[in-house]
TrEMBL record:
PROSITE patterns: PROTEIN_KINASE_DOM (PS50011). Residues 114-474 form the Protein kinase domain. It comes from the Bacteria. This is ABC transporter. Belongs to the protein kinase superfamily. ADCK protein kinase family. SUPFAM superfamilies: Protein kinase-like (PK-like). Keywords: Membrane, Transmembrane, Transmembrane helix. Pfam families: ABC1. Signal peptide: none annotated. InterPro entries: ABC1_dom (IPR004147), Kinase-like_dom_sf (IPR011009), Prot_kinase_dom (IPR000719), UbiB_kinase (IPR050154). PANTHER family: CHAPERONE-ACTIVITY OF BC1 COMPLEX CABC1 -RELATED (PTHR10566), PROTEIN ACTIVITY OF BC1 COMPLEX KINASE 7, CHLOROPLASTIC (PTHR10566:SF113). The chain crosses the membrane at residues 6-27, 507-526.
Length: 537
């Protein structure tokens, strides 16, 4: 049963974070060995996971997003929360019925012949029920969970307090990851998901996008019955994409299905516009004829034109085995930190791309994944905040494809799909140029040119990083000084009141006003600067 009291929710979350902060600082002060740190992070992950399951609501989604940040967070913590699922007990039917009647302005019995009172699916934001309209059409009725809007607001307020505390009292992670920016992005996505009108618009967008496709089915939406809390769609029967026993009975092969899946999602990742940000197996069905059926468009992201072009060049570079160009694209997109050794990254990419799927049979997959995550965390790379949901979409589809055809190399499956898409976009000469650049003769010329430009480039990077570090610590030191001055002034106010000393009281009030205003100005400047740094990165 979801805990609705905002004070209980805030207490549970903030007390949990406070315990985490104290434990981390104690381990840091006492200089605990690496093995003890691993145990601590694992215990933190367990308690974090248990608290999220207990509180449900928005916090489940927060855990899912956090679990995707293996580039920033300790692996023992990630391992404990990576299996978080957005499945929660359904609400009482009477509460759902009340929402339907209120949203439709009349009894739901006037619009529906029947409705199953047991939820077909139940997640943190909404629940889905199967019904039949008066004209006999079978529909899926998605209803917002009761009181979820107030619960979400409470959770965001609580997370805001925790992040404020973390920004001031915890070490900044590598790459100056901006927790406030991450929270803002999460808030935008969740608020969009809370408004079913937005989901209806996204659903209509995808219907129009795939209207000429013969491999995709998007449910019809009954717009006249949709409100901000109720979404009515065509009921579509299908097989879950991970139900392999049923999939094997279809006329299409699993490899064909994998290629169709890539064909559906590749344009979403590479073309400007909206993409499906939550394509887990429960949201992807397969019809008896092998059509890909997409469901649940509540969580969607958007990719800009500049980023889409960079991603296209990145994939072209991988397919042409032009790893120097791939590293350049990664740097342009902001995945590489300024101190990254591009030659080392280039060599790692080349080694990674030569790994054969057949070798996976001889490898402990869990150990391999942990080793890969450890390597990523040790490298000067990070996932820019604006790509968190895009990365989530890509990794989920990659996992589905890998399970569909474990014996195949995902690049071998995706290459013909990408080439077909690329040619349809008129990019054949771009790909040819990438291939020419990857040839030995061109590489020698490129290496000589790069060698000659290396000193100037290194000096520029060094100077940029030094300015960046200096500017950051200037702002941070000013903030700390003003924060300490505020505490001193508040102490002075208390002392002035206690001693009935008017002069001390007035001076302390003026000092506190000065420090608060100064602190606000510096915080605003730092916020603007952090946003600027994320943009140019």
């Amino acid at each position: 049963m979801i805990i609705k009291s905002k004070w209980i929710r805030m207490y549970k979350v903030l007390s949990m974070f406070m315990v985490f902060f104290i434990q981390i600082y104690w381990y840091k002060i006492t200089k605990k060995p690496e093995t003890e740190w691993e145990k601590l992070w694992a215990n933190i992950g367990k308690r974090f996971s248990q608290t999220l399951f207990e509180l449900e609501g928005l916090l489940i989604k927060v855990g899912q997003i956090i679990s995707s940040r293996a580039d920033l967070l300790p692996q023992p913590l990630i391992r404990e929360i990576e299996d978080l699922t957005d499945k929660v007990p359904p609400s009482d039917w009477n509460d759902i019925q009340e929402i339907l009647d209120k949203e439709w302005g009349s009894s739901h019995k006037e619009l529906l012949i029947s409705v199953e009172k047991e939820a077909i699916a139940s997640a943190s934001i909404g629940e889905v029920y199967k019904g039949v309209l008066q004209d006999g059409s079978k529909v899926a009725i998605k209803v917002q969970r009761p009181h979820i809007d107030s619960i979400v607001q409470t959770d965001f307020r609580t997370l805001g307090i925790a992040i404020w505390f973390a920004n001031y009292f915890l070490p900044i992670p590598k790459g100056f990851i901006n927790l406030k920016v991450l929270l803002t992005e999460l808030k935008q996505v969740i608020e969009r998901e809370l408004d079913f009108t937005k989901e209806k618009e996204t659903l209509l967008y995808f219907q129009d996008r795939f209207k000429d496709s013969d491999i995709v089915l998007i449910p019809h939406v009954y717009a006249e019955l949709c409100t901000s809390k109720v979404l009515v769609m065509e009921w579509v029967d299908g097989i879950k994409i991970n139900d392999f026993s049923a999939i094997n009975q279809l006329d299409v092969t699993r490899k064909e299905l994998a290629q169709r899946l890539i064909k559906v999602f590749l344009p979403q990742w590479l073309e400007p516009g909206i993409f499906h940000a939550d394509p887990h197996p429960g949201n992807i069905l397969v019809s008896e004829k092998g059509h890909i059926i997409l469901l649940d468009f509540g969580m969607a992201g958007e990719i800009s034109k500049n980023d889409s072009l960079s991603f296209q060049r990145l994939i072209e570079s991988f397919l042409a085995k032009n790893y120097s160009a791939a590293v350049e694209c990664l740097s342009r997109l902001g995945f590489l930190l300024p101190e990254a050794d591009t030659k080392m990254i280039e060599r790692l990419l080349a080694e990674w791309m030569t790994f054969q799927p057949a070798q996976m049979n001889e490898v402990d997959l869990i150990a391999f994944k942990r080793e890969l995550n450890d390597m990523i965390q040790a490298l000067p790379v990070q996932v820019p905040t604006r790509f968190v949901f895009l990365g989530r979409s890509f990794v989920t589809i990659e996992g589905i494809v890998t399970h569909l055809v474990p014996e195949e190399d995902i690049l071998d499956i995706g290459k013909p799909v990408f080439m077909e898409w690329s040619l349809s976009q008129g990019n054949k000469w771009s790909f040819a140029w990438q291939w020419i650049q990857s040839q030995p003769l061109f590489k020698i010329f490129h290496s000589v040119k790069e060698f000659l430009n290396a000193p100037e480039k290194l000096e520029h990077l060094k100077e940029t990083e030094q300015r960046r570090q200096f500017q950051f610590w200037v702002y941070e030191n000013h903030k700390k000084q003003l924060f300490q001055l505020t505490l001193f002034a508040l102490t002075g106010i208390g002392a002035g009141i206690y001693l009935a000393n008017t002069i001390m009281l007035k001076l302390s009030i003026v000092l506190s006003a000065f420090s608060v205003v100064g602190y606000s100005i510096i915080s605003y400047k730092l916020k603007k600067w952090m946003k600027y740094m994320h943009k140019i990165r």
